[in-house]
Every structure is written in C-alpha cells, then in structure tokens.
Request: fold
Amino acid sequence: MAAGPGTGRATGHLRVATYNVHCGVDGWGRPFDVVAECGALDADVLVLQECWTPDDGQPGVAERVANHLGLERHEKALAHGWLAGPDPRASLRWGPGIGHRHDTLRLDGARPSLPGPSPGRTVTEGRWGLAVLTRVPTSDRAVIDLGRLSRDPATRLALRVTVTVEGEPLVVVGTHLSHLLQGSPVQYRRLRAALPSLDRAGVVCGDMNLWGPAVTALLPGWRRAVRGRTWPSARPHSQLDHLLVTGPVSVVSSGVAPSSGSDHRPVHAVLAVGRRIGGTVTADSR
Reply:
C-alpha cells in the first residue's frame, strides 16, 4: 500500500503519541534534547504535557518541537510558576529525592512550605501547559475545562481536535489530569461528558496520573491501546500515561518508548479507522 502520514505507514494509518516532557529538563533542571525525543516518536498527532513557555518571549518547549518538526500547534497553559536552571549539586541520577523535587519547578499556588531553588540557580518565570501537535490538518478545535481541585495549583484542561483518516473523522482528546486522587473523579466525569460517543472513532490520551484499570472504570467503554510501565522513566513500576480508543478504532501496533530525559516514558500507537485489524492490542515494550 502507499505510504500514509509520517514515515513508512500504510495509507489509512495514523500514529498517535503522548509524552509528559517535564518542561524539557530532568529533576536537577538539566535540559535534555526534547525536540529529538519528540522527533523519534514520528507521530502524526503528538500530545505533550508539562510544556514550559518562559515569560520572557523565548519559544517554549511545544513551540520549538512544532517549529522543528513542521507540526501545527494547539496549546493552552494550565498554570504559572518558575523553573530553576541546572543544580550544581546534580549527580548521575535523574533527580534529587522526592522531597526536593520542588527545588526545580514550582507552580503558583503550591504549598508555601515547599523549599525554593538552591542558591546560585537561575530562575525563569513562565507557563506550564498542555499541547496537541499535528502533522495532519485539524478541525473543530476545542478547549475542555475540567476544573481545579482545591489542593492542585493547576487548572486541568483537555484539548480536542478532529483529524481525518481516509475520509473518516477521528476525534483526538489530549489531557493531563490531576495527581490528587481526592476529587479527580469529578474531572473524569467532566472529561467523559465531553468525549465523543462510543460509536464514533475517538482517541483520548495523556498523563492520567492513574493506573489503567481505574482509568477504564472512570471512562467506561474506552479500551486501552497501550499496556506498559511508564513511570518513573528510569525504572518504571506503574503506567500513568495512557492512550484509549473507541470501538471503531483498530490498534495496528502500540508500545512504550524507551527511557528519555523526562520522568515519564512516552506511549504511542498506530491506529486505523473504520475497519478491524487482526488483534486489538499489541505492544512492543513492557
């Protein structure tokens, strides 16, 4: 068959990926090549969480990725805060212990008792957000407000776009849900109300901050296209990053990408719309 969108894919196939990029830095504030990491995913639709955009007018993570890869960008901020530069105490580990993670990134409205950046580190103010980048044209762009939990400094959103695969519309929803279990079912209920009906071709993906069985219980009728551990990236023990589809969508292949500069591993799937491919879910990484 003739090649479809992207490199080496058959006509009628679409590659979708989701990646929490942790502002393009590791836990010590050291930048990694986020553009190369995103390019390696070779996605026709790429959903990014924790995109950092500085207030000083410099291009943010999502903008740099989109410009370099020639992708359309649909981006919204979820919070404002500051990001610290590389920590001189950095070791070979991905970052410091859990209790010191807020030395690198702090969102406005976070607990005032959290420590500030270590002495000598540069600090940049900016916006922390969500983006959907596409290689294929989109229509019906929308922002879905999922609300803000009282202990969460970020307002949670979902971004919805429609793409066309071989003449068939496919609704793609990218999101980043709260890490707080108390109250998060309310956000899932709002998300579910904004999703396409189960008889339509749809994809919902992102950092759900929740395990797969709980996600499918909160989004009944949606099935997991990817199963594999994604967090923490170096030695993952849990899957927090998900890609779910409706019945009219077939999963041609799927998997979890290797460890990257972020604390999350990306997940990806090649999808087909309107016909059933043998086997509903495959995975090239566990």
Summary: The chain is about 10% helix and 35% strand.
